[in-house]
Amino acid sequence: MNRTFRNMLLTLCTISLMAGLSWADTLKVGVQAPITGSYANEGQGIENGVRLLASQINAAGGVLGKQIEVIPCDDQGTAMAAAICAKDLVNKGVSMVIGSYTSTCAQAAQKTYFNAGVIQTSDGTADSLTENGYWTFLRNSFPNSAEGEFAANYMVNVKKYKRIVVLSDFSTYADGLGNATEAAIKKLGGNVVSRDKIKADSQNFTPVLTNVKSKNPDVIFFAGYYSDGGQLRAQQMALGIKADFIGGDANDNPDFIKLAGSAAEGAFIINVPSPDVLPYPIAKSFIADYQKTYGEMPPSIWGLMNIDGMRAIIHAMEQNKSFDTKKAVDYLHNLQTPIDGITGPIAFAKDGNRKGGAYVVKKIQADGTYFNEYVQ
Amino acid sequence: MDIFLQQLANGLTIGSMFALVALGYTMVYGVMKLINFAHGDMVAASAFVGLTIYTQIMGQAASLAAVIVIFLLTAAVMACIGIILERVAYRPLREAPRLSAVVSALGASLVIQNGIMLIWGPRMKIFPELVPQVYWDFGGVVISLIQVIILALSLFLMVSLYLFVEKTRMGAAIRASSIDQDAARLMGINVNSIIMIIFIIGSSLGAVGGLFIGLYYRGITFNMGWQYGLYAFIAAIIGGIGNIPGAMLGGMLLGLFNAFIAGYISSTWADAFTFILLILILIVRPTGLLGERVAEKV
Fold first, then answer.
1. Chain B contacts of A214, Cβ < 8 Å?
2. How far is CA B267 from CA A215, A310, B227, in A?
3. Position A13 pLDDT exceeds 60
4. B220 to chain A, minimum CA–CA distance in Å?
5. pLDDT beyond 50 at A115
6. How far apart are CA A374 and CA A356, in angstroms?
7. In order of start, what are the domains of chain A with their CATH numbers?
8. CB within 8 A of A185, min separation 6: which ones?
9. Digit-coded pLDDT (tens) for B140-160
10. Contact A37 B221 (CB under 8 A)
11. Among A294-303, B219-228, B265-274, which is the least confidently predicted range?
12. Which are the contacts of B206, defined by CB distance < 8 A and separation ≥ 6?
């Protein structure tokens, strides 16, 4: 009996000592990202980027004397795993969470972070993310409604398409972008001949595309992710649908071009500018470091957006000389001059939306590179 | 009419892939009365094995000969894995209650799925365009070369399998083992080697199905086996599990049904209607479309 008691006491002491040590010594940064699953490419890009930035900051002495400890959690791109990740990261005592890549996962985790006072910064573009009034949420990308307006203007006024098809999947981001674009097209007097949905990851899109074909469109606008977009484009060409293809921002990934294969040429993608053409010195040096560390380019702009969110939060903590999350967010909401970011100047509106943002239309060339067709 | 014919072509292509995978479920069930849940993941694994054979062994040569070699080598590798799977996961549980074998099958499924993830990584891998993008337009109905290959090769394999099971001595032994293993053993049939043959055939057909997925859709992920496995399993049940022509019929029906629902109603409802169809068929014919009506012995 005595021995059991002593053992328990010892264990308890060890645990509290370990917990105490880690509490005292590090600033814990959570990464919630789809590290496995269909969006693994992007999720690993986010984790790699956060680890790189953390090691750079740690090498320079840390944040207010504390070293950064990165705690990743794989949400697999599913809402269910995202909710578990949120609880797990909060229990591990993180003060900020970078991610997730998809709006669905960011949304599923939002309330948990809000209740715990943990800052969350995500590249999720669904408008609904900033509509709950959670002060903890900072969007490091630009919302769907802005992209929808840009896309609608391009299709209706610049390209003068007469018969537009809008496709999306069922996720928070894609459905939101699809609806925002459809509404913006109608506002401009454009003609949406079909608004259909595909099931993400189902691979077989020919039944839906066959219907699209019967509508005889001049353009297919796809709001959805690259893993489906590339296959959609390939199957569109295989069915002999001669319409143009315009993919929304989440199609901007090298895997889109690989999946579409020879059908990729001529497809358009709308997004903010690519990492390799970012003009800012800080972008050039970070991307060079990334390439040196991981032997590849960041998979897309999204990982870098998340890194900018993290840089902004750490900047705020340093300026405040405090790790208080509420103070850091207040500081960011009231920035007078924007912070220099990898993806451009960073400033936040009171509702957590990132200010600014310009889009480009990129056309995929025969050799798989982009050509900037139209710049806002 | 164009749309109808186009959806028919779409449905037959995807249906023949389902049918090939469904054969693996139904043959194992026929002889062992076991649902081999690992089969879907074997199909996913074969796509990755095929990709590795192409990039590592074939040196990325794209020709007809290369494609044939990839199919043969992948089928051989998967047949070996199938034999190992049976040895390790199922043979020790041959005399155990049926539930233990099912749990073992689920475990094997997880092991294979995570094995793929550990070997090839969690990212989507992309198949090269091994089959040239050639299309024919028949008055609005477009058919591609790869669709023709899938359909022709699937039909050839299914007819050969049917003839093998119905007309050869080995086939007779397989049928005998599926009716009564003990009696078959008394007749001098080595049931162990029959089961091994079943796994070789099932895994090789699954390998062809997996390669079709890679060649047709081109994006392969470590967890895709679950989805294809589920569809193929439903196809096997619709046709009457344990019945070989039933699995072929079930696969084709399921492919066509899916294409028409997605085309004429909505892709949103394709899965829901698939399960409704399954339930209806099970209500009307509990043993599936071609399954035999067996009186339950109490």
1. 2-3
2. 17, 39, 16
3. no
4. 9
5. yes
6. 18
7. 2-142+279-333 (3.40.50.2300), 144-271+359-375 (3.40.50.2300)
8. A152, A155, A156, A164, A166, A191, A192
9. 788 999 999 999 999 999 999
10. yes
11. B265-274
12. B20, B21, B24, B39, B42, B43, B46, B78
CB B99 within 8 Å of CB B108: no
Q: Residue ranges of the alpha helices (H) in chain B?
A: 2-32, 39-52, 64-85, 98-120, 145-167, 169-179, 181-186, 191-217, 224-239, 244-260, 270-284
**Amino acid at the residue B57:** I
How far is the alpha carbon of B59 from chain A, nearest alpha carbon, in Å? 19
The nearest CA of chain B is from the CA of A146 a distance in Å of: 27
Question: How confident is the model over B39-59, as a mean pLDDT?
Answer: 92
Residue A160 CB coordination number (10 Å): 9
Q: Does A215 touch chain B (CB under 8 A)?
A: no
Q: Residue A61, exposed/middle/buried by CB under 10 A (0-12, 13-18, 19+)? A: exposed
| Residue among A82, A63, A65 nearest A74 (CA) | A82
Structural contact between residues A261 and A232, judged by C-beta atoms closer than 8 angstroms: no
**Whole-Å CA distances, A328 to A129, A131, A294, A335:** 20, 20, 31, 11
pLDDT of residue A20: 47
Q: Chain-wide mean pLDDT for chain B? A: 90
What is the model's pLDDT at position B94? 87
Q: B17 with B150: CB under 8 angstroms?
A: yes
- Tell me if B44 sits within 8 A of B119, measured CB to CB: no
Measured CA angle at B25 (ends B155, B207), to 5 deg: 55
Residue A34: which residues within 8 A CB-CB, separation 6 or more? Answer: A40, A42, A43, A74, A75, A76, A77, A100, A101, A102, A105
The verdict on a CB contact (< 8 Å) between A170 and B268 is yes
Is the pLDDT assigned to residue A376 strictly greater than 90?
no
A214 touches chain B (CB under 8 A): yes
DSSP characters over A163-187: SEEEEE-SSHHHHHHHHHHHHHHHH
Give yes or no for residue B175 having a pLDDT over 50.
yes
Q: Coil, strand, or helix at residue A73?
A: strand
Mean pLDDT for the stretch of residues A20-39? 80
Distance from CA of B129 to the nearest CA of A (A): 7
Q: Is the pLDDT reported for residue B45 higher than 80?
A: yes
Cβ–Cβ gap A40/B123 under 8 Å = yes
- B contact set with A (CB within 8 A): 2-3, 6-7, 10, 14, 117, 121-124, 126, 129, 133, 135, 137, 142, 144, 213, 217-219, 221-224, 227, 258-263, 266-268, 270-271
Rounded-to-integer distance, Cα A364 and Cα A355, Å: 28
For residue A369, the Cα-to-chain-centroid distance in whole angstroms is 22
Task: Name residue, tokens 């698939």.
Answer: B274
Question: What's the DSSP call for residue A351?
Answer: T
pLDDT digits (tens, 9 = 90+) for B119-140: 998 888 888 888 888 888 888 7
Amino acid (1-letter code) at residue B190: N
Residue of A76, A165, A170, A210 to mutate, testing the B interface (most B Cβ within 10 Å of its Cβ): A210
| pLDDT score at B95 | 86
- Does B129 contact A261 at a Cβ distance shorter than 8 Å? yes
**List of domains in chain B:** 2-284 (1.10.3470)
The two structure tokens encoding residue B287? 């043993």
Would you mind telling me the total number of residues written for chain A in this entry?
376
